[in-house]
Amino acid sequence: MLVVGGSSGLGLAVSRLAYGLGAEVIIASRSAADRHEELAAAVGPEIETVSLDVNEDKEVEAALQGIGDIDHMVVTTRPRLTPAPFAEADLDQARQAFETKFWGQCRLIQMAHALISPDGSVVLTTGIAGERIYTGSFAMSVINSATETLCRALAVELAPIRINAVCPGFIAPKPHEIEERARWFPSGRTASAEEVAEAYIHLMESPYVTGTTLVVDGGARLI
Ligand SMILES: NC(=O)c1ccc[n+]([C@@H]2O[C@H](COP(=O)([O-])OP(=O)(O)OC[C@H]3O[C@@H](n4cnc5c(N)ncnc54)[C@H](OP(=O)(O)O)[C@@H]3O)[C@@H](O)[C@H]2O)c1
């Protein structure tokens, strides 16, 4: 299983959980190979690591050629994006964030799908900003909504490979004001990365689920 964005945060939690369940885990990110020892200590000694930038055709192509056949691919890349009200937002940064998260996912899937097992899957990552509007998050709202639509479109075009997405809410640690606000969520708190990682495993292991976005937000979208 290939986890693109597995060197940190949610992707690292997915890698650790899958490894514990017996998966052969390959972690990819810009820094993954350079951080092999650190990641092997965090996930397990048998992991493989590969460095790639999802914005670079040649790097993705070379990495995938080196990896070969894949059963599942998880994508948890996070672009650099400073929250800002629309009127003051840096549109160049927003465009680059769209390039990395949305087009990066497209590039990976277009280049990898021929390597993915017919009974395998892809799990993308959207986010709560695609479900509920927060002032200052317009760019991430659009990127996440586009990713959700991509998931449905590719579930049709790339069948029998299953294409799903996880929509995380707020994963701790978060700034004080978000942790305070989380007291009002039905869950009463933010999530751990491990709790959200369970959803990726569920989607990979569910043979009849495709074109679905699984929201794991503790009810944050409801309030
Ligand atoms: N954390 C949250 O509360 C939250 C909430 C809702 C949605 N999400 C979504 O969940 C996903 C993961 O978030 P996270 O907080 O776990 O992120 P994170 O800890 O910042 O990890 C992001 C990963 O993406 C990799 N990456 C970034 N740019 C890349 C590029 N150009 N090419 C290849 N790899 C790249 C990073 O590694 P390198 O630096 O080595 O490249 C790292 O492994 C994101 O899509 C985010 O929008 C997160």
From TrEMBL:
It comes from the Bacteria. InterPro entries: NAD(P)-bd_dom_sf (IPR036291), SDR_DHRS6-like (IPR051122), SDR_fam (IPR002347). Belongs to the short-chain dehydrogenases/reductases (SDR) family. The keyword Oxidoreductase applies. The lineage of its organism: Bacteria, Pseudomonadati, Thermodesulfobacteriota, Desulfovibrionia, Desulfovibrionales. This is SDR family oxidoreductase. Keywords: Oxidoreductase. The keyword Heme does not apply. SUPFAM superfamilies: NAD(P)-binding Rossmann-fold domains (SSF51735). Pfam families: adh_short_C2.
